[in-house]
Predict the structure.
Amino acid sequence: MFIDRVRVHAKAGDGGDGSASFRREKFIPKGGPDGGDGGDGGDVILRADTHTDQLANLFFEPILKAKPGGKGSFRQRHGKSAPDLVVPVPVGTLVYRFPTPEPHDPFAEPPEEEEPSETPKSKKGLPDPMLEDLVADLDQVGKEFIICHGGNGGRGNIHFKSSRNRAPRRFTEGTPGEEGWFLLEMRSIAFAGLVGYPNAGKSTLLRAISRAHPKVGSYAFTTRNPQVGVVDLEDYRKTTVADIPGLIEGAHENRGLGHQFLRHVMRCSYLLMVLDMAGSEGRSPLDDLKALRRELELYNPELADRPWCIVANKMDMPEAEANLKLFKKKYKGVTILPICAELGEGIPELKSFLQEKVEEEEARKAAAEKESGSGIQDSGGNPPLVY
Ligand SMILES: Nc1nc2c(ncn2[C@@H]2O[C@H](COP(=O)(O)OP(=O)(O)OP(=O)(O)O)[C@@H](O)[C@H]2O)c(=O)[nH]1
Ligand SMILES: [Mg+2]
């Protein structure tokens, strides 16, 4: 089971209470206050980790609870601060905070029957999060975000001693740790995304250009989870390409595997539209491309504006040549890369094209950085988050 979206409940540790105690020893019957402070509660921290590739561990254990701080004690002993709970999540995880639910009102009118809504619902039953609830984007290895801060420890009675009150019984309690509901959503981060109908040969292509081994099958929706492959380029450069499950008409309305994977395309700077040039299964590659572009546009107009090119696959089949000619006539301004993913033909050309695009992107980024005058690295060549 591949999990790229989970709801979790997090609770940071409460601060430990301060202590109210008095020094009592032989021959020192009234030794004054000596209650120590409480320790701080542990934070709940999410950390982007390269060794975690999905959110499955959180699906099975969705409650993240950090330990409370220790209580203060006599002889000025301070309570121990609790360790932070660090939870590894995949690089590219977005964190949304659910608004705190209203307290339940038993006298409230029961809600009216909901009318069937026009907008598609998420397939896994989790509502689509709102952009304003986004609190963090863990898009770099090692990046951390504290989702709940631990409470502060209370103060012991030793702090409340004064000239007028030599034996204070006052102490403060530790503050409670924060808690809340969060939605964690993973979006694969890759330079280029392979977008195409089922069976167009996306997974075969990823196998041909990288060391990734996604499953290849002659049936639709062989790929059910996005997978990122690392592609070695010239001059020891590397880039990443994401294989994404097949897209069908109506995907923006959640048909097929729907939104589940369009989410992942959002993080790709470049789109490789993979087409079955032979038009097997009685389809026309021209119609396929039109439908794919429309789906991207309907899901998010921003996606339709991403730079893209056509990867004309299955050029080993007899019908492919005629279709390629049609494409060259119709899409004059668009790069068309004819390949046969299965036999590895056209793969070196595709790789050098990718290299060109990676270098262009790097130059663009460097120029943008110079302009803004900041030396701060952005999210590693990925476009800003858009929804
Ligand atoms: N003749 C020919 N067949 C190919 C070529 N590339 C892929 N295929 C075949 O096309 C079928 C589908 O390939 P996949 O790589 O699984 O296609 P996909 O686009 O990943 O499909 P989904 O994961 O279902 O979206 C397989 O039977 C492949 O063997 C090619 O260049 N030529
Ligand atoms: Mg596939």
Q: What stands out?
A: The helical segments are 56-60, 202-209, 259-265, 285-299, 301-304, 320-330, 347-372. The first helix runs from residue 56 to 60. The two ends are 26 Å apart (CA to CA). The domain at 192-372 is CATH 3.40.50.300 (Rossmann fold).
